[in-house]
């Protein structure tokens, strides 16, 4: 995932399509744990 000018590895409990809005719910080492934001 791109955040600003950096790339970060991510993990999610479900498959997320490109362009899905997400939120970071945890950090494990340098990996961002994300989930979809449902509006």
From TrEMBL:
It comes from the Bacteria. Residues 2-35 form the NfeD-like C-terminal domain. SUPFAM superfamilies: NfeD domain-like (SSF141322). This is Nodulation efficiency family protein. It comes from Escherichia coli.
């Amino acid at each position: 995932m791109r955040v600003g000018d950096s790339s970060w590895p991510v993990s999610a409990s479900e498959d997320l399509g490109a362009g899905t809005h997400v939120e970071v719910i945890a950090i494990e080492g340098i990996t961002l744990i994300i989930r979809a934001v449902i509006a």
